[in-house]
Amino acid sequence: MLQLISELASRSPWIYRINAGSCNGCDVEMATTALIPRYDVERLGCKYCGSPRHADVVLISGPLTLRVRDKVLRVYNEIPHPKVTVAVGVCPVSGGCFRDGYSVGADIDHYIPLDVIVPGCPPRPQAIMEGVLKAVGIWRTRLEEGVCSHS
Fold first, then answer.
1. Which of 5, 151, 37 shows the shortest CA–CA distance to 83?
2. What does residue 20 show for φ and ψ, rounded to 5 degrees?
């Protein structure tokens, strides 16, 4: 047990959130997973960070709007490898209710590979927690495969 705790503490995944033009419904639910003890992601060994350069897991919400596309891609490229991308809600995957809007371009997966999809509009905090747990599993597998995290 002590060995497991020391392994988790030595390299816990950090989470970074990107809003790609959402209505903020998903962002409110992601904040719930960060602030309310019942859904606290820190129980999974994760911690939200304020810089993409420290992140291991990125949560993306909203359709990729034309106005923020270049900024989102620039921030995404600042995240070191191995990184795991979680689409939160239906908007990153299909555009959701904004799909045919004048300000929405192609789906996010045309620009950024999605590893985990958390469906819902907005998804419930339990679903976001499950998505983060899957992402952590993928991230740990990539670490074990020898992909350098900070190269």
1. 151
2. -95, 20
Residue 38, classed as helix, strand or coil, is helix
**C-beta atoms surrounding 117 within 10 Å:** 17
For 43, phi and psi rounded to 5 degrees?
-65, -25
Tracing tokens 């191995």 back to the chain, one arrives at 82
Q: Which CATH code for domain 13-144?
A: 3.40.50.12280
Per residue in 69-127, pLDDT (tens digit) is 999 999 999 999 999 999 999 999 998 888 888 888 888 999 999 999 999 999 999 99
The bridge status of strand 84-88 relative to strand 116-118 is parallel
**pTM, two decimal places:** 0.85
CA dist 149 and 54 (Å) reads: 10
Instruction: Give residue limits of the domains in the chain.
Output: 13-144
DSSP 46: -
* 13: CB partners within 8 A, 6+ apart: 45, 46, 47, 56, 57, 135, 136, 139, 140
